[in-house]
Amino acid sequence: MTDLLNPVERTALLTAALRAAETRREDRLYEDPYAARLVGAAGPSLLAEVRAATFPPDRPRSLPSTPDYNAIRTRFFDDLLHGVAQDRDMTQIVVAPSGMDSRAYRLRWPGHIRYFEIDRPAVLEFKADRLQGVAPQVNHSTVAADLTADDWAARLIGAGYDPSLPSAWLLEGLLYYIPEPDAHRALERVAALSAPGSLVAADLVNAAALALPHMRGLLDVFANWGCPWLFGSEEPEALFDQYGFDVEATQPGEPGADFGRWPDPVPPRGVKNVRRVFFVHGRRR
């Protein structure tokens, strides 16, 4: 079934492979018992290719540590979503795209939550096949739609989503894989579907990360897979502000996004021409 997935969706398998590897660690930041099942036999080769680029044998590492980054990102968004779900006024969570994410299955959710996953039909079918016999731990709906198409908002509402109620949106592994106009269009639609007080969370790279020479090793891996990084922003707060969201942008290694695992210095925001990743999180005005 992996032949049904397009190149960007194969990065979802990489995420599952990284989560399976993290789950095997004694010092793991979270446990994902379904990640190995989701990635299947593809895991070792995906991890080997990324590791070869990230940890070259003949020179010091200059790229960010992909395993540590993925572990921190997963734990950060786990905690964020699970925390906001304790608010009884927050009744809807939307994960877009859902990829091989298993939060609906591996985390315990309060009974008032409705949990929506949006992704292309092939991805949802692939995931359902790999998770046969596993029940989600939440009132769960899937929405078969392409997030760059025009009809996904209508499909989400058709699945029972109510845009008049507060919601929490996770846009994980989306924005840097799509062209800038599509990124803006996605944020515009999320804003239109989000009642005041709704949460938005996303990961985003800065523009420099797309162009710095020392990033080439990692960028080439994804480009060779057919899924280059296409969009980044030096000012994520201003980007989301355009669409009515007041957000913070936290970098891995900063307080609340370290968990004892980030191995590199975190340059101050005023330093130019350095790679950055942001965990963006905030509320709809």
Would you mind describing this structure in some detail?
By secondary structure, the protein is of the alpha/beta class. It is built from 10 helices and 7 strands. It has a 7-stranded mixed beta sheet with strand order 3-2-1-4-5-7-6, sandwiched between helices. Helix 1 packs across helix 3 and helix 1 crosses helix 4. The radius of gyration is 18 Å and the shape is globular.
Helix and strand topology:
Blueprint lengths: L6 H17 L11 H5 L3 H12 L11 H19 L7 E4 L7 H4 L7 E6 L1 H10 L8 E6 L7 H7 L8 E5 L8 H13 L6 E7 L10 H9 L11 H6 L3 E6 L26 E8 L1
Parallel strand pairs: 1-2, 1-4, 2-3, 4-5
Antiparallel strand pairs: 5-7, 6-7
Briefly characterize the structure.
The chain is of the alpha/beta class and 285 residues long. Helix content is 36%, strand content 15%. It has helices at residues 7-23, 35-39, 43-54, 66-84, 103-106, 121-130, 152-158, 180-192, 216-224, 236-241, and strands spanning 92-95, 114-119, 139-144, 167-171, 199-205, 245-250, 277-284.
Number of strands: 7
Shape: globular
The value of Rg in angstroms is 18 Å
Instruction: Supply the number of helical segments.
Output: 10
